[in-house]
């Protein structure tokens, strides 16, 4: 035994869009040699235009008529006032299911930026122009092949928290470079001239790292 439910949404629209003799087919299923249900909104032939026709499509092995029994149950919902095609479409759009899960935008850069600000878990310190900047080896290495070679290659510093001294960079430029490494964006400059000057120095730093 088995059953298959064929639900017809927007009956009026299907009747208007489907000519006599043409059908809408259900999802495929297998039961007693049957394969699908064909639904004719305006009848299967010209002498049945005022009727709805439903037929069962047989597979390669038809069901035996003597042993097979079919039962049809039709359930219809009729609105109190007939709806136009436009009203049906508006009703269908309004009944569209809401998004099951609202996926928030990625905040990975924000979390990485917070690591740079707090210095939590930092395992390397840079000394630039008398200022120190704590950072994370794995983050730097993943973003720069030069940092990767310096921190994990033959140039790897000894000790748990190494201090790497950089003499050819200004503190603010190196700070902006680290900001970009963690946030994938540049820090905002308040003044235009300062932004131009910072960008020029950052290009040099970017070329190195």
Automatic annotation (TrEMBL):
Biochemical pathway: Protein modification; protein ubiquitination
Per the record, the GO terms for biological process are: protein ubiquitination
InterPro entries per UniProt:
BPM1-6 (IPR045005), BTB/POZ_dom (IPR000210), MATH/TRAF_dom (IPR002083), SKP1/BTB/POZ_sf (IPR011333), TRAF-like (IPR008974)
Pfam annotation, one family:
MATH_2
Where is each BTB domain found? 122-190
Q: Which SUPFAM superfamilies match?
A: POZ domain, TRAF domain-like
Q: What is this protein called?
A: BTB domain-containing protein
Q: Which organism is it from?
A: Setaria viridis (Green bristlegrass)
């Amino acid at each position: 035994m088995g059953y298959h439910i064929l639900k017809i949404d927007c009956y009026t629209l299907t009747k208007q869009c489907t000519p006599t003799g043409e059908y809408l087919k259900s999802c495929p299923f297998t039961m007693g040699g049957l394969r699908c249900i064909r639904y004719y909104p305006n009848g299967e032939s010209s002498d049945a235009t005022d009727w709805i026709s439903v037929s069962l499509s047989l597979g390669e092995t038809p069901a035996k008529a003597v042993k097979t029994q079919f039962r049809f149950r039709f359930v219809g919902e009729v609105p109190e006032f007939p709806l136009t095609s436009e009203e049906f479409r508006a009703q269908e759009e309004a009944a569209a299911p809401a998004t099951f899960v609202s996926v928030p935008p990625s905040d990975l850069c924000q979390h990485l930026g917070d690591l740079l600000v707090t210095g939590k878990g930092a395992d390397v310190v840079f000394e630039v122009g008398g200022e120190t900047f704590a950072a994370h080896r794995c983050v730097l290495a993943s973003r720069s092949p030069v940092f990767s070679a310096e921190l994990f290659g033959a140039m790897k510093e000894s000790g748990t928290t190494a201090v790497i001294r950089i003499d050819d960079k200004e503190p603010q430029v190196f700070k902006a470079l680290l900001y970009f490494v963690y946030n994938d964006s540049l820090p905002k400059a308040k003044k235009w001239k300062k932004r131009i000057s910072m960008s020029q120095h950052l290009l040099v730093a970017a070329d190195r790292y």
